[in-house]
Design brief:
The protein is an alpha/beta fold. The chain is built from 14 helices and 13 strands. α1 links the parallel β1 and β2.
């Protein structure tokens, strides 16, 4: 079977798409990618998946002229997507959301190809909300998404994410050059980082340096600033622009501070990791609803960005330590919320379209 995966270029779309592509390939299917992939095109090619890049932009200007420009750009992208589909003749198409996937999913629908979309967030994004009315099936990460979609089309597959093959804590601390005897905090502010989180966390580590060490994923823009700052201040923090080996980072950490993208929420829930979540406050506030999946079960603490200060972050981390949140307790609270084999589930739904 030939499968064409359509996705936008952010980490929240790309990583679940890649995990699904791997599961499909293991099952003997030929998988290729199309969409507006941003800087992730080379990452996908490195995994030996064919890539067909499109050019499109999201709707930022909502004036009459803005809509006209958006329509023109998107029409060209859909026209190119027709060509991609004709040349590759996929048997099935999977869309992973974002404006970058929209042209391919729309072209597939118009060409009467079997199309499935996967919604990562609790509340569907605009592109998926529109396409959900047209496609055959809608796969969801969280059961809470059912209320926003046609229940006859919905299937709960979970969110394909990186939670298996977790190494030992001791091995992982060695990977990052960290000590065995200290508690470790992992800060992941999303694939592009979070400037506000970076600034507050680096200030907090001055207070925590005697007892904690940290792994800090800063994002590319802030990396050099914080790498130099930690060296100058002699703080026990390892800074990275991006962390490829997330299983090792999770295994090394005692406490996570993170944004609340769908894949991150799924990984934290499946691994039973104590977390302070700071939802990204824009893009329809999707991440707040994701964070509540864990917080409502008492499996995470939420700090909204408007309330994020050094004091509030210190209090939240201290609470996790004082209350002695354990992996076993968190896994009990999250039992049944997440699929342990989401990529396989999504591959099976695709095969059955």
């Amino acid at each position: 079977m030939k499968v064409l995966i359509a996705t936008g270029g952010t980490g929240g779309h790309i990583f679940p798409a890649i995990e699904t592509a791997k599961a499909l390939r293991v099952r003997g299917h030929h998988v290729s990618f199309a969409g507006v992939l941003g800087g992730n095109e080379e990452k996908i090619k490195a995994l030996d998946f064919p890539v067909f890049a499109l050019s499109a932009k999201g709707l930022n200007d909502r004036s009459f002229l803005g809509w006209l420009r958006f329509g023109k750009i998107m029409s060209k992208a859909i026209f190119r997507a027709f060509g991609v589909i004709r040349r590759n003749a996929p048997d099935k198409i999977i869309g992973f959301g974002g404006y970058g996937s929209f042209p391919v999913v729309m072209a597939g629908f118009l060409m009467r190809r079997p199309v499935l979309i996967h919604e990562q967030n609790v509340v569907p994004g605009k592109a998926n909300a529109l396409m959900a009315t047209m496609v055959k099936k809608v796969a969801i990460s969280f059961e809470a998404s059912r209320r926003y979609l046609n229940p006859e089309k919905v299937v709960w597959t979970g969110c394909p994410c990186r939670h298996s093959a977790i190494p030992s804590k001791k091995e992982s601390l060695k990977v990052f050059g960290l000590a065995d005897e200290r508690k470790t905090i992992l800060l992941i502010g999303g694939s592009q980082g979070s400037h506000k989180l970076n600034e507050i966390f680096s200030d907090l580590m001055k207070d925590f340096a005697a007892d904690f060490q940290a792994i800090h994923m800063t994002g590319a823009k802030d990396f050099s600033t914080y790498e130099q700052r930690y060296k100058t201040q002699a703080l026990p923090v390892k800074a990275y622009a991006f962390i490829d080996d997330m299983p090792a980072a999770y295994a090394a950490a005692d406490i996570i501070i993170a944004r609340s993208g769908a894949a991150t929420i799924s990984e934290l829930g499946l691994l039973g990791l104590p977390a302070v979540l700071v939802p990204y406050p824009f893009a329809g506030n999707h991440q707040k609803y994701n964070a509540e999946v864990l917080a409502q079960k008492g499996a995470a603490v939420i700090i909204e960005q408007k309330d994020l200060t050094k004091a509030s972050l210190k209090e939240a981390v201290s609470r996790l330590l004082f209350e002695n949140w354990t992996k076993e307790d968190i896994l009990k609270k999250t039992k049944g919320l997440f699929q342990t084999d989401a990529a396989l589930q999504l591959a099976l739904v695709t095969e059955g379209l």
